[in-house]
Every structure is written in C-alpha cells, then in structure tokens.
Amino acid sequence: MEDHNITLNEKTFRVLIHGFVKESRMDKALQLFDDVSLYDVLIGGLCKIKELDKALHFFSELKQLGIHPNVQILTKLMTSFSEENKMIQLLEEVQEDIDEEAMILLYNSVLNALVNNNSIDKAFLLLRAMMGDQSDADVVEHKLLRVKKAIRPDTTSFSIVIDGLLRTGLCKHGRAVEACKFLASSVQEGFLPDIIPYSAAIDALIKTQEVDRALELFRDICSCGYYPDVVAYNILISGLYKAKRVSEDKDILHEMEVKGLVPSVITYNLLVDGWYKNDDVDQAMLFLSQNVVEDRKTNVTTYTTLMNGLCNAGRPDDALVLWNEMGREGCFPNNIAFMALIHGLCKCGRPDTVLVYLHQMQEKEMEPDTFVYVALMSSFLCNLNLPLAFEILKEMAGKGNFPDPLDMNCLIVRDAVLKLSEDARTSSRVRNLIAEGRIPKICCSDIKDEGKALYNQPTFGVYDSDITK
C-alpha cells in the first residue's frame, strides 16, 4: 500500500488493531499501535491473553503521558489479577485520581476478581469495608481492606458478593445460614436483592436439611412484597418431597395457581417423582390423569417417571397402559423411556413382553445400553428360559456390548455365562462364543473344561484386546 502512496486513516488503524486483538495476535497489534486512544483496546487484549506485565507497562506509559486512565482500563486490569498485591498496588495508585462513581466500578471489579478466585470471605469483608464497617484486626491482616474513605456499595456490589456466597462459597460449605444473615443485613443497608439470590438461599438451606428454615425464609420474602417465581416454588417442592413431606406439596401447588403462576412441566415432574418415591404412586397416577383432562403440560419425563414407579410397585400392566396413553397424547418415547420400561418389565418377570419393545426401540434406531441387555438376560434366566437368555448373550457378543470389568453387572454376566455353559441346550454354543474370543475373559473365568479352568491365566479385569497388547 505504501508503494502506491496509500496511507491508512485512524479509523482503519482502529479496525485493524481491534481485529488483531480479537484474534489474540498482539504482536501485529503492537506494530500498528500509535495512538493513545487505543490504549484501552490494547491493554484489554493483553489482559485477555494473560500478558499482565505488558498490560501494566502500557498502563504506566499512559500515566507518564499525563493521561488519566479511564475506568474501563482499570477494571480490565483488576479483573485479570489473581495476586492480591497487584490489586492493592493499583488501588493505591488510582484512588486519588478518580471520582466516587468510578471508584465504585473499580471496587466492584475487585469484588469480581476475589469471587472468581474463590476468596469469598475476603470479598465479603471488602464489601463491609467499603461501607466503613471493618474491624482493626481484619485491616491489619488484609491490606486490601484499607479503604481510605467509605464508598457506598451499589446494587452490583451486593449482587457480586451474594452470588459468590450462594453459588461457590458459603452455601457450598454448609454455611447457608450465614449467607441468609448477609441477605438480611444487605436489606438493612437499603439494598433489595431480587428473587434469584433468595431462591439460591432457600435451595442451600434445603440441601443442608434446614427445610423449616427455608419455608420460613420463603414466607418472609412473600410478606415483604416479593413475588417468588416458578423456579423458587420448584425449589421448595423439591425440598419438601426430599424431606418426605409430600403432603405439603399440593398446598404449594395450589398457592402457585392462586397467585396466577403457571406451573412448568418441571413442577409437574417434581410432584410425580415425589409421590412415586414416597410410595404414593396412586396419587401420582391421579394427578397425571387430572393433568391430561385439564390439558396441563406433561412430557416424556413425566410418563417415564410414573411408569418406573408402577413397575417398582409390581404393576407392569398399569405401566403398559400408561405407555399406550403416552402415545395417544402425542408424547413420543425417547431412548430413556424405552430403557426404563424394558428394565421395569424385566424386574416384574416379563421378559417376553420386553422383546416387543426392544425390537420397537431398535426399529427406531435407538441403541439399548448394556444395562438393558443384562436385565433382559437375567430375567430370562429367572424364568428358566435359557435358550432365549443365550440369544441375548449372543446379541451382546455380536455388538461387543459387555459391561466394564469394574461394573457390578460384570458379575451378573459372568454368572449367566456359567449357567448357560452348564446347560445342555446352550453349553456348546456358549463355548463356541468363548473359543471365538467374542466374550471377555473376565465373563467366563469360572468355566471349567475337563476339570481345568478354560483359561489358565489371571483374568480379572482383562479383555481380549488387553491380552494382545
């Protein structure tokens, strides 16, 4: 371009530098850099690729030029630091040069950096220090808390710390109650959190088995004018059924509907799952029937959960009725639904019926997992139908679909292979599969051949492919 006397204007330079920075080609960006207004872009790019020493060099150069860095540059630097002494150094350098609004933005970036570095407790202390509420002992221990003047935090400041407390910090270590106290203190300071941190606090209390305290917090926020959303109600419903208090779930559902909230399909699935797991499958069936009549949302998960519950209760015929109803309602089974029904029918001793659904599943190009084959083979063995049990074993061998040696199902397969090898109807065919190397050695290590082990070498956890290595 220079040979043709074509020069780039400032806009072109900006576009090129932005492009190089975006592609992390800082070497090319530095070659073009010749404008102080582009320091922001360049420092941001260096921070992104963790070239912090170079970023700080350009920051110092900017100050030497007598230009006050804007808050965007400062926050990019601050959020990139993992070392606390770097944060302290930067804070000390700029505190006198920027106004209070910019200082709040800067401290918010420090809070973000602390939360991202899992220094949640320190973020909490810094927030208190910003309000002028820090102890002498904390200040002595943590230089970062030496705030020269009180800076009133804004909504973002509280949100950053609350999010850290509830997602990755206090609640994760069983300190949900402390997080709730912080929420209360933030309200006293004039900050009104939205429903999201309260929902997270309720969830944390439930996970620490503080269900009554979670309910109390829920009622408190309702009385303060908050309107919990569907997510908050779902958290509460889930917690109640896990605490085996499913009788209260219907009241919670009724309250949702009175308040004009439309329960989601997740709400219905939680209720059905709760009733089934608390041995009240009839209530779950009744609820599903009401949903169908009232055209409420249900999905394949709702039906799968209930069919699983019916099979566990020894009611396979009801599960099959529900399967057919699911199809009539236009809710088509997925891979998980097929496998749940097949496994449930196997547990109920109905392997012949299972074959129908196994073939349907394969026709839809859904591949059963090892768990399905093992359950089906075991069910045929329990019914003393060894020829069909062998057919399942042969299909497993054809697909190489055997459980991992460390999987408990491997022991089930090994017992099955032993039984089939000892039965006159299947013995020769099983031994042929073994001779062809189509059954893993771990699954046939108990089989004897004329008084000797069929394989005379250690076989625990060993497959044919391992032997040849």
Q: Which descriptors would you attach to this protein?
A:
single chain, 469 residues, 26 helices, 1% strand, disordered N terminus, disordered C terminus
Total number of helices: 26
Q: Walk across the major sheet and give the strand order.
A: 1-2
Mean pLDDT: 77
Q: List unreliable stretches of 5+ residues.
A: 1-10, 450-469
Number of beta-strand segments: 2
Helical amount among residues, as a percent range? 55-70%
Q: Cα-atom Rg, whole angstroms?
A: 33 Å
> Largest sheet, if any?
2 strands, antiparallel
Principal-axis shape equals: extended
Amount of beta strand: under 5%
Span from first to last CA? 60 Å
Secondary-structure element string:
HHHHHHHHHHHHHHHHHHHHHHHHHEEH
Structural class: mainly alpha
Structure description:
There is one protein chain. The chain has about 475 residues and is an all-alpha fold. Among the domains are: about 155-225, no CATH class; about 230-280, no CATH class. About 65% of the residues lie in helices and about 0% in strands. It has helices at about 10-20, 25-30, 40-50, 50-65, 70-80, 85-95, 100-115, 120-130, 135-140, 155-165, 175-190, 195-205, 210-225, 230-240, 250-260, 265-275, 280-295, 300-310, 315-330, 335-345, 350-365, 370-380, 385-400, 410-420, 425-435, 465, and strands at about 450, 450-455. A hairpin with a 2-residue loop joins β1 and β2. α7 (about 100-115) runs parallel beside α10. The longest helix has 17 residues, at about 100-115. The chain is extended and about 95 Å long. Residues about 1-10 and about 450-469 have low confidence and may be disordered. Pfam families: PPR (PF01535), PPR_2 (PF13041), PPR_3 (PF13812). GO terms for molecular function: mRNA binding. Belongs to the PPR family. P subfamily. This is Pentatricopeptide repeat-containing protein. It comes from Quercus lobata (Valley oak).
